[in-house]
């Protein structure tokens, strides 16, 4: 899953048309490098990020979703928590919803159920604005994440979402210290007990920066190591910025994991 952020600071400021064109070219490049899904997001979920209104989010996301579907025939995931954005994106041909708030906003469960689309439910406590202020868990982090995701799956099923349409994400970097993130990845097999496909995103995140003391533009090797470990621990979709190198790392890991499977 290639990341396509369409927040105002992500692309050229040469006007709407130029920005849309830049987004399309970037998506085209990620597809050529082997991405199966393009994740389009109009809300920054970085720690401390300011909230955006559904209208602002739609203005950013809708033209890109429409163009990706029409011009590239891409499988588009929409990174949103807003029911309005879910509804409109589904109407424009999006193929998946990626919600870092796991459908907890008012109306989100209903909008997602009505869309019929697959949904990724991610673990996060609080909001991006405050989630990194002293994150704390009363039980081991992997148990807290598993309990949260199990409860969200139950809420989804009660709202009419089909279990085969759900994916789960532990939410690396969301309300977690570096130690929480390392422990969660080390013990990610715990989440396989929930019997749903796992999606993870660690690309360029601060856990790499903190362990390796690298600025964001030097985090690729660390991210590839994490991608390989995540696949080995059951992740089936990786949300990444650097698609080409990630596809190679994943395919190499997979070849080792498959060794002897067809003999
Ligand atoms: C939008 N976004 C940013 N980080 C993410 C992650 O780790 N997982 C998912 N599903 N979405 C994310």
Tell me the structural class.
alpha/beta
The major beta sheet can be summarized as:
6 strands, parallel
Ligand inventory reads: 9-methylguanine
Give me the strand/helix succession: EHEHEHEHEHEHHEHHEH
Instruction: Tell me the helix content.
Output: 40-55%
Shape: globular
**Quick check: average pLDDT?**
94
Q: Which residues sit in consecutive blocks of at least 5 with pLDDT less than 50?
A: none
List the total number of helices.
10
Going across the biggest sheet, name each strand in turn: 1-2-3-4-5-6
SS strand fraction: 5-15%
Report the C-alpha radius of gyration, rounded.
18 Å
Structure description:
- It holds the Pfam family Pterin_bind.
- Its EC number is 2.5.1.15.
- Residues 1-251 form the Pterin-binding domain.
- Keywords: Folate biosynthesis, Magnesium, Metal-binding, Transferase.
- The protein is an alpha/beta fold and 263 residues long.
- It has helices spanning 16-32, 54-72, 83-91, 108-115, 141-158, 178-186, 189-192, 206-212, 220-232, 243-258; strands at residues 2-5, 38-41, 76-79, 96-99, 119-122, 166-169, 198-200, 235-238.
- The strands form 2 sheets. Strands 1-2-3-4-5-6 form a 6-stranded parallel sheet, with helices on one face. A two-stranded parallel sheet has the order 7-8.
- α1 (16-32) crosses α2 (54-72), α2 packs parallel to α3 (83-91) and α9 (220-232) packs parallel to α10.
- The longest helix is centred in the first third of the chain and has 19 residues, at 54-72.
- 9-methylguanine is lined by residues 41, 45, 79, 98, 100, 120, 122, 169, 171-172, 199, 201, 239.
């Amino acid at each position: 899953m290639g990341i396509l952020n369409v927040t105002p600071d992500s692309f050229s400021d040469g006007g709407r048309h130029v920005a849309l064109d830049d987004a399309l070219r970037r998506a085209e490049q990620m597809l050529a490098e082997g991405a199966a899904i393009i994740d389009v997001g109009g809300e920054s979920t970085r720690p401390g990020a300011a909230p955006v209104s559904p209208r602002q989010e739609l203005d950013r996301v809708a033209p890109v979703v429409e163009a990706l579907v029409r011009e590239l025939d891409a499988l588009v995931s929409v990174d949103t928590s807003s029911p309005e954005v879910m509804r409109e994106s589904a109407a424009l041909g999006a193929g998946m919803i990626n919600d870092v708030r796991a459908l907890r906003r008012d109306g989100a469960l209903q909008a997602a159920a009505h869309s019929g689309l697959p949904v990724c439910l991610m673990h996060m406590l609080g909001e991006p604005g405050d989630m990194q202020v002293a994150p704390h868990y009363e039980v081991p982090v992997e148990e807290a994440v598993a309990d949260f995701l199990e409860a969200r799956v139950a809420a989804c099923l009660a709202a009419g979402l089909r279990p085969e349409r759900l994916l789960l994400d532990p939410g690396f970097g969301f309300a977690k210290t570096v130690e929480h993130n390392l422990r969660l990845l080390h013990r990610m097999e715990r989440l396989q007990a929930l019997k749903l496909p796992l999606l993870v995103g660690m690309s360029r995140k601060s856990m790499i920066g903190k362990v390796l003391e690298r600025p964001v533009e030097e985090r690729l090797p660390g991210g590839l190591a994490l991608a390989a470990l995540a696949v080995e621990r059951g992740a089936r979709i990786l949300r990444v910025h650097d698609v080409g190198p990630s596809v190679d790392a994943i395919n190499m890991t997979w070849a080792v994991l498959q060794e002897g499977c067809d003999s």
